[in-house]
Design brief:
Blueprint (H helix, E strand, L loop, with lengths): L5 H9 L6 H13 L4 H14 L4 H12 L14 E5 L7 H10 L5 E5 L9 H5 L11 H11 L1 E5 L6 H12 L6 H14 L4 E8 L8 H17 L3 E8 L10 H12 L5 H17 L6 H14 L1 H12 L19 E6 L4 E6 L1 H13 L13 E3 L7 E2 L4 E7 L2 H12 L2 E4 L9 E5 L1
Parallel strand pairs: 1-4, 2-3, 4-5
Antiparallel strand pairs: 5-12, 6-10, 7-9, 7-11, 8-10
Helix pairs in contact: 1-3, 2-4, 2-8, 3-8, 4-9, 4-10, 5-11, 5-12, 5-14, 9-10, 12-13, 15-16
């Protein structure tokens, strides 16, 4: 391949020029082998965020260049290899339920996930709140775990889309997270490297999502679906509401509690509903079931019977966690030192949550990262979060704050009280699934 020049490539993107496929492959390889510096990676991210890559074909080419910067996994498991990805939201722990749920009906799910990004939580951080759990594996160990229990939720190791590994960290600290081209390539490069037969995307829309506007979310969904299908992976997407936390909890260990409740068949709610909707969507798209209703019934049955919980417990054990986690999870999860309640200052209906503010409060409590090197406190966050539409009396509880110190909790309380609105009348109920994109 021709030996390109990073500065020339950066100048091209800065000046809204079109990169050739070979230039993209060279730059992605430079990201993976270190020939492209951190400064150049940051400059590329900012230039793309400001100017875009110029076309749908360029978006697909960049995604494939990122995928091809490392190893592409292949599977000989005798069953469909499927996955789901969410664009990120608050209280969104769907992946932790859906992977074992799909595995419980015979689907192979090698789910490559990420850490917290911006105000949203990370699936890997949530998993690591379980003592002993490791999330980084060799390809050989990934295969062993998949063959044993049918699913794994793990990080991309150094061999899987290493170019994205570099850019993923850079985007978080350079305010380039919400670039359409960068989001598309970042999400899909890892998914395509996972050797998938099919993918379902959960595109979040609302105050707690990166895309607050339905038109923006639709644009992202179409970009992802078109790019994935052009790259050879059958993909559909659901645009789902993220104007409030999906689970009634935010924070790593606190969301694991909600995951276990759903897997134990205890709760119905928004978290379970979205999980089943996404599972039914991909099972129908892959023609594993004839229609959404049939797929939904089977998924509901495996939640209620404990089959999905059994798969989750097997996966956690194989990943280094407690053997009996599914039966005694509360025993193992970390607990915060300071727990206080927030109460409604007056009567009314809970009309609105500022989801991004809630996410940022959890990050400041230590539940996420302000910079890449920050250590995460798995115990902090919110629990028992009241849903939009709840009728509150003056003094009714709105949520509980879990913090490392009481002064941190009190400061978070002040911020929470500024992050919601009350109204005299009940707000209009919002559909969970806003659109389907194929």
């Amino acid at each position: 391949m021709k030996n390109f020049n990073a500065q020339a490539i950066l100048a091209k993107v800065r000046n809204k020029g079109s990169l050739s496929r070979d230039e993209m492959v060279w730059f992605a390889k430079g990201l993976s082998d270190g020939k492209v510096t951190d400064a150049q990676a940051g400059a590329f991210s900012m230039a793309v965020a400001l100017n875009g890559l110029g076309s749908q074909q360029a978006r697909t080419d960049w995604t494939l260049a990122m995928r091809d910067s490392g190893k592409i996994l292949s599977w000989e498991v005798g069953s469909p290899v499927l996955d789901k990805h969410s664009t990120g939201g608050i209280g969104d722990c769907v992946s932790l339920i859906l992977a074992p749920l799909l595995a419980s009906i015979g689907v192979c799910v090698p789910m490559i996930s990420g850490r917290g990004l911006g105000h949203t939580g990370g699936t890997l951080d949530k998993l690591e709140s379980i003592p002993g759990v490791k999330v980084m594996y060799s390809e050989e160990r990934l295969v062993e775990i998949i063959e044993s229990c049918g699913c794994i939720i793990a990080g991309a190791n150094e061999n899987i889309a290493p170019a994205d590994r570099r850019l993923y960290a850079v985007r978080d600290v350079t305010s380039t997270v919400d670039s359409l081209d960068l989001i598309t390539a970042s999400i899909l490069s890892k998914k395509l490297a996972s050797g998938l037969d099919g993918l379902v995307l959960d595109i979040k829309c609302g105050s707690g999502a990166f895309m607050a506007d339905l038109n923006q979310a639709t644009e992202l969904a179409k970009a992802l679906v078109k790019t994935a299908n052009e790259a050879g992976c059958a993909t559909t997407a659901l645009i789902t509401d993220m104007n409030q936390p999906l689970a009634p909890a935010m924070g790593n260990a606190l969301e694991i509690v909600e995951v276990m409740r759903v897997l134990s068949g205890e709760t119905v709610g928004r978290l379970r509903s979205i999980t089943v909707s996404l599972g039914a969507e991909i099972l129908k798209a892959q023609k594993i079931y004839n229609n959404i209703s049939q797929a939904t019934n089977e998924l509901e049955r495996n939640l209620n019977s404990g089959a999905a919980l059994k798969k989750f417990s097997e996966m956690i054990s194989l990943m280094g966690g407690p053997i009996n986690f599914g039966q005694d999870f509360n025993r193992y999860l970390p607990e915060a030192t300071a727990v206080i309640e927030v109460f409604a200052p007056e009567a009314g209906y809970l009309a609105q949550w500022d989801g991004r503010s809630l996410g940022n409060i959890v990050v400041k409590l230590g539940g996420g990262r302000l910079v890449e090197t920050d250590q995460v406190d798995h115990a902090v966050g919110f629990s028992e979060i009241a849903s939009i539409g709840t009728k509150l009396s003056k003094g009714s509880p709105i949520l509980k704050i879990h913090a490392a110190r009481i002064d941190h909790a009190e400061e978070a309380k002040r911020q929470v009280l500024a992050a919601f609105k009350l109204s005299d009348s009940a707000p209009k109920e919002t559909e969970l699934v806003l659109k389907r994109i194929t």
